[in-house]
Design goal:
507 residues; Immunoglobulin-like; five-stranded mixed sheet; 9% helix
Length: 507
């Protein structure tokens, strides 16, 4: 393909053209920090009779290179003819911008060789193999046409898109002994072979089908216009096999390329709940059918919250292109929008609404660890310190921190903004009833009312009096017991011998 006075050709194009494994050629594809360029002064398709003399320039030093010459006359041929670990000459020079580049040249002497050949220069010092190539015709025979990708983006890995019509452009090199391109337009001596096979996953799932297509030749450009309606190609992914043939039956290499036909928008259905509660997770699933296997689509999500705020979704909320999951932390209607765009640029808009209901707070009031119920009577010590606590009250996570607490004593407001009430907070006497109300940020409220009794403390003097009388009573009881015991035990019951008077003894 003619490219002016010089050409810089990526070898991946050449190798793909020749059914070889792709090799990274340009620096933008290589994982290098510097843009690498190596240009040939010659153009693709140049004809040499015997000695090959090539030259060019490079943006990188050429200290470690390999230059090779390959015979690619047949479409499946890749025969090494010559190689060298160095170039014939390398000369540094300074560009107008003050950057150092290098001139180079090399020769191959193959007087007896005739072929369609490929010259390749590989930069061996690069982390990734970076190569540059030039297609030449050598000698007088074994010359065939060569199809070349128009750009690096037209390689097999790139998918050409066809919504209605698609134009495929390639470079076409013709052997030196063939007619000119201008003559070929009028006298089409080039026959195009164009076939496709369904390839939803990168490989053909059925046989190739030959299609009749028209081509145009202009200078060195080979152009095919594909009308998908005329050739009756339904939506799908296809693999193209393209080659040309001259009237002398010389076949070119095959061009392999993927083609996506996508004329119709996808069908989309939504699966999700329509009602939910605050702090619950809402999941929206999309069932996307684009009409063929292997289709690719993307989804752009947007949410309008109940307060009217429009927001994009976060990366953590997108579980997949067809699934969205987020926590509803507000009461009201959530509007969920999805823009689904397929490979062909066809898009579908969907909207799904979810009504989120508020969850009322559950009041939990406790005294000394025991839960207080509504209308309950609670006894407290008048001279003791106590606390009524509602810290165990529950609500949704978005509302719990914003609950409004209000305490009332005998119907009068005492304090607010606090979840507990201390004995020291009440400054009045003869109070009987306490009411606690709470409200969340959505207006939902809950309350509890209970009565309080004060337990009177006993007087210390009374206690002392009681104690004295108790002791006296005990003493009295003990004395009575002793007295009665003395009365009960009579003299005759004594164990001691009783002595009678002397007179009686004498008798």
């Amino acid at each position: 393909m003619l490219r002016g006075n010089s050409s810089s050709i990526c070898l991946v194009s050449i190798l793909s053209m020749l059914f070889l494994a792709p090799i990274v050629l340009d620096a933008s594809s290589a994982k290098t920090s510097t843009v690498l360029t190596l240009e040939f002064d010659q153009v693709d398709g140049i004809h040499y009779s015997n000695v090959i003399n090539i030259s060019g320039s490079s943006s990188v030093p050429l200290n470690s290179v390999e230059i090779t010459l390959w015979n690619v006359t047949s479409h499946d041929q890749y025969e090494l003819l010559n190689s060298s670990s160095s170039l014939l000459t390398v000369t540094p020079y300074e560009t107008d911008s003050g950057v150092t580049n290098w001139y180079w040249n090399h020769e191959f002497d193959h007087t007896s060789e005739s072929c369609t050949c490929l010259v390749r220069i590989s930069l061996l010092e690069q982390t990734d193999l970076v190569s540059f190539g030039l297609t030449i015709y050598l000698g007088t025979t074994n010359h065939r046409p060569v199809l070349m990708y128009e750009s690096d983006f037209d390689q097999t890995s790139h998918v050409m898109l066809a919504t209605e019509n698609v134009t495929l452009q390639y470079g076409l090199l013709l052997p030196p002994n063939l007619l000119s391109f201008d003559s070929l337009v009028a006298n089409p001596d080039v026959i195009t072979s164009f076939s496709v096979c369904p390839a939803p996953y990168g490989v053909c799932t059925d046989d190739y089908t030959s299609l009749t297509v028209l081509h145009e030749l202009s200078n060195d450009d080979f152009e095919i216009t594909l009308d998908t309606f005329d050739i009756n190609l339904p939506d799908g992914l296809y693999l193209i096999d393209l080659y040309v043939q001259t009237m002398s039956l010389k076949e070119s290499n095959s061009i392999m390329q993927y083609l996506a036909v996508d004329r119709n928008p996808p069908n989309v259905t939504v699966a999700s709940v329509s009602e939910s509660f605050e702090s619950e997770t809402i999941t929206v699933d999309l069932d996307v059918d684009d009409g063929y296997d292997g289709s690719v689509y993307s989804t752009t999500w947007t949410i309008i919250e109940p307060d009217g705020e429009l927001r994009a979704v976060t990366s953590t909320e997108i579980l997949a292109d067809n699934r969205l999951s987020f926590i509803a932390d507000k009461q009201g209607v959530y509007q969920i929008f999805g823009l689904i765009r397929d490979t062909g640029g066809n898009f579908v808009n969907i909207q799904h609404n979810v009504t989120v209901a508020n969850v009322e707070p559950v009041l939990d009031l406790r005294f000394d660890g025991f839960k207080i119920e509504n209308n309950q009577i609670v006894t407290v010590k008048s001279n003791d310190q106590w606390c009524f606590s509602a810290n165990q009250t529950t609500d949704t996570s978005n509302d719990i921190d914003s609950l409004e607490y209000n305490w009332f004593v005998d119907g009068k407001s005492l304090l607010s903004g606090r979840s507990y009430l201390l004995s020291s907070d009440i400054k009045t006497e003869d109070w009987e009833e306490i009411t606690l109300t709470l409200k969340d940020n959505n207006g939902a409220s809950s309350s509890i009312t209970f009565s309080v009794e004060e337990q009177k403390s006993q007087d210390d003097s009374s206690l002392r009096t009681f104690t004295i009388w108790t002791v006296l009573l005990l003493i009295l009881i003990l004395s009575a017991i002793v007295f009665i015991r003395k009365k009960v035990i009579s003299p005759q019951e004594s164990d001691f011998v009783r002595w009678s008077d002397k007179k009686s003894f004498d008798d």
